[in-house]
Amino acid sequence: MVNNYKRTSSPRSPTNSGELFTPAHEENVRFIHDTWQCVLRDIRSPQSSERKDRGPQEYVEKNPNPNLNSFTPVDLSDLKKRNTQDSKKS
Fold first, then answer.
1. d(CA 38, CA 6)
2. Region of poorest pLDDT, from 4-13, 26-35, 75-84
3. Separation in Å, CA 90 to CA 17, 76, 84
4. What pLDDT band is residue 84 in, cutting at 50, 70 and 90?
5. Which of the two residues, 7 and 19, has the higher pLDDT score?
6. pLDDT at 60
7. What spans are recorded as compositionally biased (Basic and acidic residues) (predicted)?
8. What are the angstrom distances between the C-alpha of 16 and each of 12, 31, 38, 56?
9. Could you give the C-alpha distances from 8 to 12, 20, 37, 87, in angstroms and in order?
């Protein structure tokens, strides 16, 4: 995907977990998050149907896999919290 997004620097965000992230890591995460928000906004905008050949397009399976019907997304934040709590107990 090509995007005209310009990276900007900002102060480091505080972490609650005590993990230290490099400024480059935080900048990359911010860039991906901000760019994804732009993609979601563009997909949901009323003009998106007018420009099918340009901009982001949402992929939808033509023949969904029946094995995935019972798939439940994992909340990674919750999983990380539980793993962190489990390691503190040991």
1. 12
2. 4-13
3. 18, 21, 10
4. confident
5. 19
6. 84
7. 43-61, 77-90
8. 13, 21, 27, 34
9. 12, 20, 16, 36
Tokens matching residue 3: 């995007």
Q: Say whether pLDDT at 35 is over 80.
A: yes
Cut 0.70: pTM above it = no
Q: Two tokens at 22?
A: 């490099």
Place of tokens 């935080």: 26
